[in-house]
């Protein structure tokens, strides 16, 4: 394993899990085979993140744009999500994993929604690592709803009352710190409407590895890449030394 500075591990890592369909196609399988194979990657990555001391791991599991996929694939994804949560719940709970979601879970099928609610409730007191699943998620919708919520609940008297801090408090991620590291698999170099507000100063790591092949070693490489960067937040190198 590559050497890591365990005192400089990202508190929050977000991952766009991409390439399931292409990975399956390359093996002569259907897309759902790729999605199912990706469950093992989730399991291995979560375990590795917890061992390394990561506090929050956010996985982009299903976007609002994904509803445009073939219905058979959508149904299969929902069934896979339910089965994964049901089969993994005891293990998550026993290992101190707290489960959260961001996105509009009310838009999910009722059985899928209820499975998520039950899992969240069962694990809500756990403190080992927080696994955040982005489900029926769109960053643009998230920001739009934040503005709507501010107008409805805050009723700002003037434009100066609307601050970045206020907007952050009305996002889906209001109780979650912004990610320090965003990983996207499968060789695509874009963020695809994911956490657009939160990744303003996030380090981006793109890998050609498709998600079903992603394992602990790939996570370590991404974290090492993060550790080799100078995070200046608009300042000069001299100012942060």
Keywords:
8 helices; six-stranded parallel sheet; alpha/beta; 241 residues; single chain
What does this structure look like?
It contains 8 helices and 6 strands, in the order βααβαβαβααββαα. It is α/β, with parallel strands linked by helices. The protein has a single domain (about 10-135, about 180-225), classed as Undecaprenyl pyrophosphate synthetase (3-Layer(aba) Sandwich), CATH 3.40.1180. The protein has a 6-stranded parallel β-sheet, with helices on both faces. The longest helix has 24 residues, at about 70-95.
Give the SSE layout.
Blueprint: E1 12-16, H1 20-26, H2 31-52, E2 56-63, H3 71-94, E3 97-102, H4 110-123, E4 129-137, H5 139-154, H6 164-168, E5 181-184, E6 203-206, H7 216-227, H8 237-240
Parallel strand pairs: 1-2, 1-5, 2-4, 3-4, 5-6
Helix pairs in contact: 1-2, 2-3, 3-4
